[in-house]
UniProtKB/TrEMBL annotation:
SUPFAM superfamilies: SMc04008-like (SSF158757). It comes from Luteimonas terrae. Residues 35-100 form the SMc04008-like domain. InterPro entries: SMc04008-like_domain, SMc04008-like_sf. This is SMc04008-like domain-containing protein. It comes from the Bacteria. Pfam families: DUF1244 (PF06844).
Length: 108
């Protein structure tokens, strides 16, 4: 991972990481559903959809078949279409410009 994590038994580390992941999802989806995915992409280079893709990749690595919709529902806490209807707004021209600039910055 590139940092010195404390020495923990593997099962404890897994439980701690899982709890931190669940807390991140709770924060994004319950405390801050107003934070748009495009804003996350601009600032952090990932969004809720990225988390769902990583979740699906992890499931696949464990031999568990999980489709895109199921992975998104696990991350969003509800079907994606429902979350989108309740929380997603159209991107502003400023957000689109910032997103483009962020992509260009990370491509070089």
């Amino acid at each position: 991972m590139g940092f010195a994590a404390p020495a923990l038994p593997e099962d404890a580390r897994t439980r701690i990481e899982a709890a931190a992941f669940r807390r991140l999802l709770s924060h994004l989806n319950e405390a801050r559903p107003d934070v748009q995915n495009i804003d996350l992409m601009i600032l952090a280079g990932f969004c809720r959809n990225c988390l769902a893709d990583w979740y699906r990749d992890a499931a696949t690595a464990e031999g568990v078949a999980l489709d895109k919709d199921a992975a998104r529902e696990a991350v969003y806490g509800m079907p994606f279409a429902q979350w989108k209807a309740q929380h997603q707004k159209d991107a502003t021209p400023e957000q689109l410009a910032a997103f483009k600039a962020a992509q260009e910055k990370h491509a070089s």
